[in-house]
Design goal:
alpha/beta, Spore Coat Polysaccharide Biosynthesis Protein SpsA, Chain A, 2 domains, six-stranded mixed beta sheet, three-stranded parallel beta sheet, 9 strands, about 15% strand
């Protein structure tokens, strides 16, 4: 688990791991320079449970650097990802560990998730594709593995070069594409093993536009695996320029608001509508509001997007 200013949710996230039915593990938590009380909260829980190993940094280097640091620090063959604002099902480690032990060619296994609603009764079940063939078919155009739901086979990830910092907010997507291209098996366990928080804290439309660029970089690199990254970046830039930026941002804003409404997050919906509205301008905001009023619950898959604010 990599943490950064997560004092509101980190204790609940940690508790969901400590309460696993499978209990023989080390819980490595890397704090990436938090300026709130996150480190102190973790230290208090570490004092009560020796399985927690806290590595605290005073400099913020970003998620990719800390993920790679964690993979290099541990000696465990199976590494489970966890975010500081999510909750793991109590049988998550036991279920995914069994899959990795039984299926030796699987390099990464995610799972079904519950998108966290305003209360548990408002949670929404999301079922990404399960089989490797189905994932391999969808993956070149859409990320279909939820990053904080995965268990990784560490030896394979080390062999394939870890996460690549050049892909910033799409570092997981780039890794899945590389694993798939090299013939490693990917899967999603058909059980809801994670409650995934649809966090809009810190997200702006500018950041969503930036995220699109890194998604296009990952797709371009997959399409041209031998191409130098500076050329990959140039092609991704040209491909992004082909998008209608205003329409893209309006669609992102509308999709975010619909997703929040479906999860019962009305306060968050109005907050994000106000925030995005100021960034979109009056005309685009009116179009967005009209579309929401006409069809507030249009189907959304959540796939291919990251509702998290961190990169």
């Amino acid at each position: 688990m990599c943490t950064y200013n997560a004092e509101r949710t980190v204790e609940q996230a940690i508790g969901s791991i400590l309460n696993q039915t499978y209990r023989d593990f080390e819980f490595l938590i890397i704090d990436d320079g938090s300026s709130d009380h996150t480190p102190q909260l973790i230290e208090a829980q570490a004092a009560a449970d020796s399985r927690i190993r806290l590595l605290r940094h005073h400099e913020n280097k970003g998620l990719t650097a800390r993920l790679n640091e964690g993979l290099l620090l541990t000696e465990a063959e199976y590494v489970f990802r966890m975010d500081a604002d999510d909750e793991s099902n109590c049988e998550r480690i036991e279920s995914q560990y069994a899959v990795m032990k039984r299926r030796r060619h699987v390099a990464a296994a995610g799972s079904y998730i519950h998108m966290m609603g305003v209360r548990q009764g408002k949670d929404r079940l999301v079922k990404p594709p399960v089989t490797h063939d189905e994932i391999a078919r969808i993956l070149p155009t859409q990320n279909c593995i939820f990053h904080p739901s995965v268990v990784l086979r560490r030896s394979v990830i080390l062999d394939e070069g870890l996460y690549r910092s050049e892909f910033l907010s799409a570092q997981d997507y780039d890794l899945w594409l590389r694993l798939c291209r090299k013939g490693h098996e990917l899967t999603n366990v058909p059980l809801p093993l994670l409650r995934y928080r649809y966090s809009v804290s810190g997200i702006t439309l500018a950041r969503k536009w930036e995220q699109l660029f890194y998604v296009l970089m990952a797709q371009t690199s997959h399409e041209f695996p031998e191409m130098a990254l500076d050329l990959v970046r140039e092609i991704a830039t040209r491909r992004q320029q082909e998008y209608n930026k205003k329409r893209f941002l309006r669609d992102v804003a509308g999709g975010t608001c619909r997703d929040l409404l479906r999860l019962g997050q009305r306060k968050e919906t109005f907050r994000i509508l106000d925030q995005y509205g100021r960034q979109l301008g009056v005309a685009n905001t009116l179009i967005l509001v009209a579309k929401l009023l006409l069809n507030p619950f249009r189907k959304s898959t959540f796939l291919g997007t990251s509702p998290k604010g961190r990169s």
